[in-house]
Each structure stands twice: as C-alpha cells, then as structure tokens.
Amino acid sequence: MKTFFTALLTVGLMLTPTQAEPAPAETNQVSVHKVKKMSLEELMELQVREVATLTRTPERLIPATVNVMDATAIQQSGARDLNELLDMYTTGGQVILHHSHVDHFGLRGIISDREDKYLLRVNGQVMNQRMYVGVDAERCLPLLGDLRRITVTYGPGSATYGAGALAGVINLETYNGLTFQGADAYVRQGFLDEMTVGEIRYGQQFSKDSGLFLYYGLADRRGADSDYVFGNSFVTPNPNTPNVKGGEPVQFPVPRLHEAAYGEVEHKLHLSYVKGPLEVWARYTQGGIDARPERSVLALTTNAVDDSMGFVSFDRQFTLVAAYKQDLSATFNLDAQLSYDYNENIYDRSVAGVTNLPNLYSLMPFDREEHAIRGRAIGNWKLLDEHALALGVECSHEMYHGRTGNDSRFPIDTWETDTLSFMAEHQWTLNDDWTTFLSGRVDKNTYSDWLFSPRAAVVFTPTQEDTLKLIGARGMRRSGDAELRRIHITTGDNGDAESMNSLELRYDRQCDKHWHFGIGTYIEQYNAIGIVQQVDKAAYSTSVGKFLICGVEPEISWTNAQTRVTLSHAYTQLLDAREPQLGQGISAKAYGYGDGLASWANHVTKLALVHDLSKKWSVSSSLRVYWGFSGAEDLANWNDVQAKPYNLALTDPGYEDAFGPNVFWNAGLEYRLNTHLTLRADAFNMVGWIDEKLSKRNYILRGSEYSVEAPAVMLSARVTF
Hints:
By secondary structure, the protein is mostly beta strands. Helix content is 10%, strand content 48%. It is built from 9 helices and 34 strands. The model is unreliable at 1-38 and 40-46 (pLDDT under 50).
C-alpha cells in the first residue's frame, strides 16, 4: 500500500505545471466566490443552460424542481460514492439495497430493481445502459474528484432530456481545462467499511478558451462485515449450513456489504480537451458489487453456503464525445454533439456446484454488450425579447450482443436498432411577472411505438423574492432493449411503454442572500413496467399496474461565508393502485393490504451542515432519517397468508423490526494545513454504534430483510502541487 501511495504522488509531481494553481470550484456560469458577493438582484438573474430547459433561462424561472450540488458541497460532504452523496443532499431521495444489482436510488416514490426510471447524464451525454441494468457503473464508484457540479431535476423530464426520464434526471458536470488548473492528488483510507482510494487531477489552460484536463481514480473496495437479517425463519437444506431464524443475523458466511465485484480494483478515467466552442472528452469507468444471496437461494440450494453464493454485477463503460456549443449570432445558438458509447454488464449467477436451481442460477455468467453511436443538434433562437425557441433532432444506432433474459435457456442474440427523436420548446415572457414554457419530444425506436413527452409550465414572479411554478409533464420510457427484442421475436409486437403523468406546484422564497425557503407538492400517475415474481418460476418484466402517488417536499437553507445548512422533509403517499399483476412488488394496496409503497419510506427527513471554524478548520455533518417502511410491512402481511409465498417480503408472526426507522449520521473534520495539504477525517453511520437496527438498509421487493450499514471511519489527504 505504501508503494501505491508513493507511486501516486510521484505521478502527480511529474504532471505539475509551472506556476499553476487549482482554479476555484465554479457554478455553471460564475465562481462560488463571485456568487457570494452578488446582490439579491444579480442572483435572481443568473442564466443557466441544459437544466430542465432547451432555451436559456434565468435560474429562478427553471420550470422544474432542481437541486444543485457544487464542487464545495461534493468535497465537504465526505460522501464515499454518488449514491451516498445523493442520499445526503436530495430532498426525499432514497437508497435501497438489492440482492442482484448495485444499490438503487429513487425519487418521489419511484424506485426500481433496475436503474432505468431516471436518466443519468455526464456533460449532456446520457449514460444509461439500454440493454438491461440502466445506469449502474457511475453510482457505486468511490471516485468523485472529477465532478464539478451535480444537478438533480425532479419529476418527468422526458420533454427535454429524452425517453426514460420518469422520476427525474441526474446531471453530472465534470471539470475541464478552463475550470481546473494545476495538479493535485487525493488519497483516502477507509476502516471497518474497508477501501483504499487514490485520485489525481491535472489541468492546463493554454489560452483563454482552450485547455486540457485529466483525471484518474482507482479504488480497492473490500466492503464491511455487517449483520444480514431475514424477517422469516427457514431451513437451509445443507446440514452444514445453519438454519435462518427470523429477526436474527445469519450464522453463515455472506459477501461483505458493498464489496467490489470479483474483488476487482475499480477505475474511473476522464480526459477533456477544450478549444473554443469544441470540447472532446473521453471517459472510462469500471465497477460493480458482490451481492448477498436472497432467500429463495438459501432456502433451496443443497450446497453449503459460503461467501461465493451471492450474485455479481460488474460493469465497464467507455464514452467518447465531441460537443460543439457556439453563439453563432446575438440571437442564435447551436448545440451539437456526436458520441460513441460502449457498455458491458456481466451479471453472474453462476456458482460452482449449484445445479438444482435452474431458474435462479446459470451455468455461466450473462455477458451483455452494447454499442451506441449518437448524434444531436439543437438550435436556440431568441426571436424577440419576449420569445425564445429551441428545435432539435437526435438519432442513434445501437448494437447489442447477449441473452435477452436471465435464464441460460435464452439463446445468445445479436441485433441492431435505430432511435430517432425530435424536440421543441417555446419560452414566452409575457411581462415581468409571468413566463410560460411549452416543451415536447417524440422518440421512436425500432421496437417501440412513438413516445410523446410534453410539458407545459407557468412561472409567476410577483416580487423579486417570490417564485411560484405550476408544471404539468409526462415522461415516457420504453422497456429494456433486451426485453423489447425478446417480445419482438416471440410475438412480432412492440413492447409496452411506461409513462409518468405529473402535476406539480412549487413555491420558492429567496428571503435574502442567506435564507431560502421552498415547498413543492405534486401528484403523479405512474403506469409501471417492472419485475413480477412467480412461484417456482423465474421472475419476468411486464406491465405491473397503475399507481397514483402524491407528495409534499418542504425545504429550508441558510448560507453565509462560513456556514451552509439545509433541512428538508419529504412526505410520499400512495393514493390508488389498480390493474396489478399478481406478484408485483410495488405495493400491496391493490390486494387490499395497507396504502403504502413497498420499497419506500413515506417520511424522510434530512439535515446537512458545513461550517468553517476558521481559515484552517471546518466541520461537516449529515443526518438522514427514513421514518419507517409501512408499505413493506403491508406487502409482507399479504405474502404471509399466501399458500405458496412469493419471493417478496415475508415475516414470522409478530416480527416487525425491519419496518422501523433507518437513521444515518455522518460527521467530518477537515484541516487545511497550508495551500498544499488538506487533511480530513470522516465517521459514517455512527448511529450503528448505538443501535445497529437503526443503521440498517432494507432490500427492494423484500423489505422484511436488511443489512446493517456498518459504522466506519475514513482518513484522507489532498496534496496540491
């Protein structure tokens, strides 16, 4: 390990430019330092691009609820990966575990066993894998040093971002040679939740509009030994494997929580070159997890259980993008992009010796590969002072190779598809108080029907401090492309589309430069496609029902030169559930049990604090409280009375500990020794040292089961050259 750190620092020193210093973290238009000096009037007029609109829009008029994390917030959060960062800072955003894939993230009650209900973009490029898993690779990597800004847009965003933006959109913006100059190295060592992380950054500005940026990070993530608990008791067939007692930790080996897939080192590489209006960047990520085995495996396998029994999900992704953004005149802007994207997902359900479970285990890993070539052009006109218009077209060619289902009896297939999209937006400034937005997009894939995603919004600004927004939108999504291929081959038809219809009312008040208050309320009609569990058969994806969900999201923040505090709460309520497929795990309300979402906490409260004690010392802390999973308990109550229970939540009579609150409390201390060295110590999941049942993380579909998020400590050092 010492050799590794020495080599890392040596590389950083070799890359050091002469008389160069790291540039300050910036927002989309101006640096954070300038923002702090702005008047309230100037803050209200900040212009943004590519944040929930196609036309250029003052930040306060964006027709959506938006959450922004700048580089300072990212760095001072202490977050170990993107999932943890989003869990800390998004109002109502939730993270839940899975027995098959990387941990899942959701917004406004929408969370899936695959990451395909929202879009994740890097510098405007959609990173979702289309074939099967969605967007896994970016979220679990403990490598965040390339990120300059993160913007989360809530609710359907398909009208501007494209099909698949149902629950929201996560936009990652990286540094480039104009926003980062100099070189630094960042090393972290985690204990209890074990990981060793190293990152280097180098930026060189050649002229006022050209520069080079290089980032490389690697992580050896070994995970944590933590308790693994089931809600029901069952017998394990192998006499050498202890039986499971509901509510108590299992007594046999399981994979370490958050352990990297196959024990492989995880990687992220980002390279950017900017020259005037052109930016060319390349990105490579590699990561994944070893998951803990699910109940259906443990209750049926005749093998002795050990830490090789869980499924593995391993991802590689390479992206190459050429982006051109240019103001061609005072009234016309062009945004064009050409890209190539390669995704590989290895979904490994093969365990040596397990041959008696053909629906659960395969004889070999499922290796799925996809290639996509995409082109996009958007023209933005400022026709008059009152009117702005954007028109765009996007096309892509996709190439796939792999099995179209999670069963070795599905043959390996190779096929190609094309996708064509058109988009438009009109922004009308009626007067100083009223602004309207009309947006729409249509998407057509070889194996889908035309998908139409409209949005209409009215923004009212009666005073300089107050903003009121009314937003109606629909998001559309086609099924995974492997499923669409299978449906086409077997039936000749196109697969069903998934949709989200949403109506949102949002009020914000910028009281002064320090205080901000906001509250949003929404109602959404979710026509869902998801996984249906079957008894004694493999699960499959199909239309699972129609769900009506509402919510309220109040938040308040206070900021000055030394302190940043945010407090938020989210309340989510399922109002109706209709046309359910038997075996779906979204809610048991459709079966007459309760009124909650099975994989969602109805109430979530979050508090985050960063405070500079002095020029050298700062502290940070975050508290997240998931107040309970009543919907998971409802699903278990329904499943408990089935003659043959489904592979969903299941409990022993009277057991309810798994459905109680989850509390996650982190704290960090940072010391800036000088301009060249910063030291930091973080503690994670500290509530687990008091009561580990509060520091648990439930599983999707099977909320009666949980793993304890182990308390952990991390030490880090940043060296600036």
